[in-house]
Automatic annotation (TrEMBL):
Signal peptide, first to last residue: none
InterPro entries given in the database record: Histidine_triad_CS, Histidine_triad_HIT, HIT-like, HIT-like_sf
Domain of life: Bacteria
Residues the record marks as active site: 101 (tele-amp-histidine intermediate)
Gene3D superfamilies reported for this sequence: HIT-like
GO terms for MF: catalytic activity
The protein's name: HIT domain-containing protein
Histidine triad motif (motif): residue ranges: 99-103
Source taxonomy: Bacteria, Pseudomonadati, Pseudomonadota, Gammaproteobacteria, Chromatiales
Domain annotation HIT: ranges: 6-115
Organism: Spiribacter curvatus
Amino acid sequence: MNKPCIFCEIAAGRMDAEVIHQDEQVVAFRDIHPQAPTHVLVIPRRHIESMTEIEAADAELIGHMHLTAKRLANELGIAESGFRSIFNFGRDAGQTVWHIHLHLMGGRSMGWPPWPGN
Ligand code: 5GP
Ligand code: ZN
């Protein structure tokens, strides 16, 4: 049997996470290893492995993930100071969980471009 996807487990409420928002389409929760004072992950409830899997019919869902990030940036007080919204896809980008997730990060200044160490 395949190992259950941890983000599907969190979305279904079978695994603990500090959930800060949920609706019919997405769940947002705090990253377990935060890389910034505010580090939240926004995931679709539906299991999608990578950007390479998305289709035209997913446009509204992907847009909703961004609108959720914008709303949370406001609520968490990082909209004015600035924030990153990042998707990592595939090996070179460092994707470690194969269920797409938007990283919402803020509360410190961040380097650019994202060479190793940034
Ligand atoms: P990726 O490297 O795939 O873009 O990001 C995966 C993120 O998921 C990492 O920042 C990691 O800390 C976070 N993460 C992995 N497992 C868990 C978990 O069980 N709970 C939570 N809240 N975050 C997790
Ligand atoms: Zn999943």
